[in-house]
Amino acid sequence: MPKATPTPGSTLVSPTDHALILIDFQSQMSFATKSIDAVNLRNNAALISEAAAGFKVPTILTTVAEKSFSGPMFSEITDAFPGQKLLDRTSMNTWEDAAVIDEVNRIGKNRLVFAGLWTSVCIVGPTLSALDQGFEVYIITDACGDVSTEAHERAVERMIQAGVRPMTSLQYLLELQRDWARTETYDMTTGIAKKFGGSYGLGIIYAKTMFGASEGAHGSAPAVAAE
Predict the structure, then answer these.
(1) pTM score of the predicted model
(2) d(CA 86, CA 68)
(3) What residue stretches are annotated with the Isochorismatase-like domain (predicted)?
């Protein structure tokens, strides 16, 4: 019988064990995206970008035909990484671009997390290519989109069958924090959740405002006795 210990599983991501690769979050790519609406897509892109920037996760930002066709990367992403160079490509498969691969090798992480547009082309290509070369690969599924729900879902299924691990945007943020006793990133994490975490973020605002409550009892007010 195995012996339980209070240690995290090896497949959980942490701020220091991976690189995030954000691909083709651009205007022209979003126009044809139908599997997720633009508001949710931009919100989730902002959430993971703010999380990665806040936890100092090495992040690659790449576009395709930025000046000639696809347009600028979402400001929600570039605002989180001010001054960072965007690696513009001609290849649909990011993994076939030498400048991107140079950056992957410079960062030197064997665990990679991907998100972008479109799931069936610009995400399937690099994730399956990275798997073939021995990398451990994750995809943030609700920060990806495609021309139809069918296209997105079949792409995610294909990646999972190949060995890619799926996760969501909020899951990514909370997995980086993982323990509310980590006070140095507590305010940042809950701040991102309040802004981009949907009903979960509203719950944090409500609990803090109404009862002085916090995740992990950080700065919480004394409990009110029941009448």
Answers:
(1) 0.92
(2) 15
(3) 19-169
